Amino acid sequence: MNRVATIALTALAPISWGSTYAVASELLPPDRPLFTGAMRALPAGLLLVALSRSLPKGAWWWKSAVLGTLNIGAFFPLLFLAAYRLPGGVAAVLGSAGPLFVVGLAALVLGERARLRTVLAAVVAAFGVSMVVLTAEAKLDLIGVVAGIVSSASMGAGTVMTKRWGRPEGVGPLAVTGWQLTAGGLVIIPIAALVEGAPPALDGKAFLGYGYMMLINTGAAYVLWFRGIGKLSATSVTLLGPLSPLTAAVIGWAALGQALTPVQLVGMAIAFGATVFGQLPGRAERADRAPGAPAAPAPREPFSSPEATDRNVSMDLSNAEVRR
């Protein structure tokens, strides 16, 4: 599969996540974000593990726990805390800053060079998102701001470490995604029980909403997201993140009757343009693909086995092969 097709499939993940607000507001019980997070993660994770018929082995038990906590278990509660403490627009802008965390962490951990065009794309995309979601009434709350920043950092670290550790030999993205979702769901459940109490009563609409969340919004979306991390650079994947708030705005206009102002439309164009710009190959990549250019050497496979993975972790990170 070529790079454009891989990017397009990976982009379906944040596009799906953009439907979360509409589904939650129209179908799910109100004021139960942690329960919703657990219902998204744990059933989807267990289903993927059952379908893949694969359990972690050796170091992958703790690696799955770490990745599941970063990508799901810590990310979901912090994201919901930010959403409760801040206007939705402010929380979305903080979330759109995630690519900047990935750019920095990828340079430190993966050896991906922090190119000016990548940083520029991330900043411009965040600016475009702010034009779409921020309102004049937006107010800041210190706890909410900290939660939003830490949630972005958690997801960014999870993206980079997912790229760093890859997958065990012979294990596909279905299994690895299932391990992470299961671990993340198990982290969220006690937090949800402590904060929100007993689960709410569910009606037919709620079952429909949770079914969509589990199968499409989380299970399928995270499989595509983690698959993309394995095939693309971490920065390329994370720069697809702004598609989520843009999709939420489009769904709000098309399905919920929310108006879009000219400023919001301009912001959507800016954010989408920056997202596309961030996916364009650099000069070195274009030179490698030019007609008559010598074939690039086959990339080294640093994740061929758990033993090789453990060796790579202890080696010079600058030699590592270069992200939901």
Short description:
Helices cover 73% and strands 0% of the residues.
Describe the structure.
The protein has helices at residues 3-17, 20-27, 33-52, 60-73, 75-85, 88-96, 98-110, 116-133, 142-165, 173-196, 204-231, 234-238, 243-254, 262-279, 283-289, 306-314. The protein has 324 residues and is mainly alpha-helical. Residues 295-324 have low confidence and may be disordered.
DSSP summary, beta strand count:
0
Mean of residue pLDDT values:
83
> Strand-residue fraction?
under 5%
Using the CA coordinates, give the radius of gyration: 19 Å
The general outline is: globular
The helix-strand sequence is: HHHHHHHHHHHHHHHH
Largest sheet: none
Distance between termini?
20 Å
- The secondary structure category is mainly alpha
Unreliable stretches = 295-324
